[in-house]
Design brief:
Strand order of the largest sheet: 3-2-1-4-5-6-7
Number of helices: 6
Shape: globular
Largest sheet: 7 strands, mixed
Distance between the termini: 15 Å
Structural class: alpha/beta
Bound molecules: glycinamide ribonucleotide
Number of strands: 9
Strand content: 15-25%
């Protein structure tokens, strides 16, 4: 499967928090480094600081809370909003929810996620804390396509950062975040240039 390649694409970004990765993608679009625009930012939490930061850039924002809904029901509301905004690519950027299989089927090969660790090590929550507590010498960031598992989809790009003696979860997170802000826009650019080819578990970067 070859990805992207549309003239000027439309991105939907899902967040749950401060939205710094969302901003890094939005800025790269503005600066012409990604041939696409952020069409919509959706948060599952109404008080996510990223919502205001997106609105300040003039990006349409939406809150879709889960509340009493089941996972699939909530996901289908999010899918409907993404479809209404005619997005080509969905970027999870600190979206702290697992997507249902039905959501993923709606956007085959068109959902990316960023994870603050070198997958497949330390998937799930608090990857940076897991790395510090385990005592690894290297951690980093991973951008991957989303499949039905937990942080298990085909890997697009990775960047390694050293874990320094005396690092805390906070200091390591900050070092990784710098790399995330470089890596995610780069992966999205490759996507919209049509240069990502998903071949089973692997992603081939063409050109
Ligand atoms: C980022 O470090 C991202 O990698 C991580 O949450 C943070 C969100 O920051 N995502 C996960 O842990 C997903 N499992 P941001 O809201 O400033 O982009």
């Amino acid at each position: 499967m070859t990805t992207g390649g549309a003239a000027r694409g439309r991105i939907g970004i899902l967040i749950s928090g401060r939205g710094s990765n969302m901003l890094s993608i939005a800025r790269a679009c503005r600066e012409g480094r990604i041939p696409a625009d952020v069409a919509l930012v959706i948060s599952n939490l109404p008080d996510a600081p990223g919502l205001e930061r997106a609105a300040a850039l003039g990006i349409e924002t939406l809150v879709i809370e889960k509340r009493g809904a089941g996972r699939r029901e909530h996901d289908m509301k999010v899918v409907a909003a993404l479809r209404a905004a005619r997005v080509d690519l969905v970027c999870l950027a600190g979206y702290m929810r697992l997507l249902s299989a039905d959501f993923i089927r709606e956007f085959p090969g068109r959902i990316l996620n960023i994870h603050p660790g070198l997958l497949p090590a330390f998937p799930g929550l608090h990857a940076q804390r897991q790395a510090v507590e385990y005592g690894v010498r290297w951690s980093g960031a991973t951008v991957h396509f989303v499949d039905e598992g937990l942080d298990s989809g085909p890997i697009v790009l990775q960047a390694a950062v050293p874990v320094e003696p005396g690092d805390t979860e906070e200091t390591l997170s900050a070092r990784i975040l710098d790399e995330e802000h470089r890596l995610y826009p780069e992966a999205v650019r490759l996507y919209f240039e049509g240069r990502l080819r998903i071949e089973g578990r692997k992603v081939r970067i063409t050109g």
